[in-house]
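Job type: complex structure
Entries:
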Amino acid sequence: MTTSTEFAILGLLTLKPMSGYEMRQLVAQSIGHFWGESYGQLYPSLKKLEAAGLVSKRAEEGTRRDKLIYSIAPAGREKLQQWLAQPPKPQPPRSELLLKLFFLTPGDVPTQRRHVLAARDRAIEELKHFGYIAEKLRAERGDHPQLQQWLMTLNFGRHQAEARVRWAEETLETLDAIEQRKPEPALANEGEAQ
Amino acid sequence: MTTSTEFAILGLLTLKPMSGYEMRQLVAQSIGHFWGESYGQLYPSLKKLEAAGLVSKRAEEGTRRDKLIYSIAPAGREKLQQWLAQPPKPQPPRSELLLKLFFLTPGDVPTQRRHVLAARDRAIEELKHFGYIAEKLRAERGDHPQLQQWLMTLNFGRHQAEARVRWAEETLETLDAIEQRKPEPALANEGEAQ
DNA sequence: TTTGGCATGTAATCCGTTACATGATTAG
DNA sequence: CTAATCATGTAACGGATTACATGCCAAA
């Protein structure tokens, strides 16, 4: 069986032959916003792929420690193509943010606000980041045949982030309205004037 | 150590005492769009929570097999409150859809279209579902103190789904434009008329 | 009578991160 | 000299799903 991590590796190797170390770097820069891979996953997977004849390895001696450069083999290309054509399986969602908002005490509006605000700020940061990457791609790789696809995935992230900002702003208004309705959570030393 | 699954359980038990089986059902209906739990996770976690004194168990004999009803203990409530106030940790994203779009052959626009279209349809379905749930909640639980929070989490899902629809529509246009630019992938028996 | 829902649980397995181990090279 | 980066790997652990095992009751 071939896992999605292994297919991700095969995909990366269609860009160019590279080492496990380079892969990790490239993942972080290019597909980091929708995919992650750790060394603990990469190196064993590369061994498996080599054993299965889907990639080939050669050593490149450099000034530092020798690199092990992997290339995708014809069999690997074929398997990858088949996989790419299959309908992607949706990953099960798991949002601690929503879990916390769902279960917080209704009266504890301040904590709800804090969480929503933090989420909004994160989304805004992401938005900036996406804009920056898109710029850079268009400038430096404007001729690459896969540029459109890269921009598609970036756009996905952008739309998602924009949605989170809108949601957060809307939710903050709701929370404000709630706080207006019951101004004070009845502290012990208040309401004495009455 | 207490995991997020265990906190989810504690959260559920603030709604009402219930059995592991009921939890599974309730999760699927209420927080299913942002959280999942399986029996293989629930039952062992309940044991752990009971051993830690965070929940209490009693048997309820009914007409069917005896149910084991769990309630949240004061210590559990306290731990939960602390956890709810901590900033939620974002889950690492992993989207097979984007991975496939990223690595597909640039010329293979039909497959890209298929994936994007399927994603759009799924998002539209979700949208309907969210609308239905929101209606139902407002109608049947219009008085519940946590209604606003439930609607917040639903709204999150709605915004995300709307964003996916927008993204898909935009992307489909891009793909159409690409297909226009190179009308035919040069099939063997075409262009003969020339 | 047999299917499906109620009900609890365990075992196998997968997928993934983190920490650890090692060691060379380079920049400050 | 020392911290960071390059570079490869393993081991431990964690978190979660799936499949399996069991069995009762109700409805078709």
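Summary: The two ends of chain B are 74 Å apart (CA to CA). Chain B touches chain A through 61 residues (CB under 8 Å).
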